[in-house]
């Protein structure tokens, strides 16, 4: 098996959903511990997300700056979005997000990494793609609203982003994981070692 995470599910004796929001909800489970005691665990139920580290021919990453109210910050991020439809193909969702947020399309897609963002309190799973061979998208630009209406776009050299992450200047989860993962890939086995864009994703099964 090697050194890897393994699926496991402890017995749940009762569950309830005390809050249901527009995109996510909160669930309370009563979970049986190894010693037989039962404890309550509250966590956010999330549909899952995709994110795109789009790398251009000059080694720059497409990033955007967006206000995030819970943390009271404008954060530099990579294009990302929810899996709005159960069973949605994550590659299709990632392509949509890259178009809507950056008006960019890509010819080469790989899976960069899969993560659980905050597994102690949320079941959100994110698949981060690497997209290359970029060009301007076709068709009309997507009409943005709310926080996205104030969004800024930029292309930043990968190593500058790595420096910012390690200096504690950049904090967005997907950006941090994405740029450090790509830096590791480039320093190691190379982009051809990455999984194909349609690789299975047990955390969020999808139709091809």
Automatic annotation (TrEMBL):
Domain Nudix hydrolase: start-end pairs: 44-178
Pfam families membership: NUDIX
Top-rank taxon: Bacteria
Keyword presence, Isomerase: no
PROSITE patterns: NUDIX
UniProt keyword terms in alphabetical order: Hydrolase
Protein name listed in UniProt: NUDIX domain-containing protein
Highest classification ranks of the organism: Bacteria, Bacillati, Actinomycetota, Actinomycetes, Kitasatosporales
